[in-house]
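Chapter review: from sequence to fold.
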Amino acid sequence: MQVTLVQLAATLDSAVNRDQVAARLRDVEGGGLVVLPEGAMHDFGAPDHDLAAVAEPLDGPFVDLLAREARRLGSTIVAGMFERTDGLPFNTLVVVGPDGDLAATYRKIHLYDSFGYRESDRLRAGEIEPVTVTVEDLTVGLMTCYDLRFPELARRLVDAGADAFVVPAAWVAGEHKVDHWRTLLRARAIENTVWVAAAGQGGERYSGHSLVADPWGTIVEEAAGGDELITAQIAVDAVQHSRDVNPSLANRRM
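The token string follows.
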């Protein structure tokens, strides 16, 4: 299956972001899985930026755009948005199928209360309900950014049948951050013998380095820091082969 990662830098103007997403998707070959970053609908902005005021419902203009593009491309699209609620919004991944229907949503479980920042002041954590979705012959588990630092979520996803993890992110730049990003993505691939496809925001504020890692933890494609598209072929056969050779999941005792 083809997977395409769209690395971009979102702005604080949701209409501009929709135009940017539509323009970037015009460069995508149809079919397979297309992954956009966390916050592709609207950037986080400064800590005092009111995300509740810009959050959208699941039938709002951002998801409507994704539905049109998914139908046009014949692809499944995963993208991050802020989902409107009666109180603090959710940090939500939406999965739109090639028919344009909403196939799944994942509301970020682990909010980024770390490195001097408190995401929980601005957003609501989702229920502890790991989410998988079938894309062609692969079962894909959904994670968002800071979730990557919690291997227990990855284990729950692989126990639910995941052959691949998709990780949209807005991984803030800083000391150690790119090294942590690459190391953690490879670790989740190695310890769970899954593909990992991670689409991050780029630009000055975020780390970029969107990448695809195979079930051995080898990085097969990686972006740098700017606006980029990267594409890779991923296959369930590679997952089964890695698990035959390295049956660490079957050998677990805890």
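Two observations follow directly from the output. The chain has one domain: 2-245. The helical segments are 14-25, 51-54, 61-73, 151-159, 177-192, 236-245.
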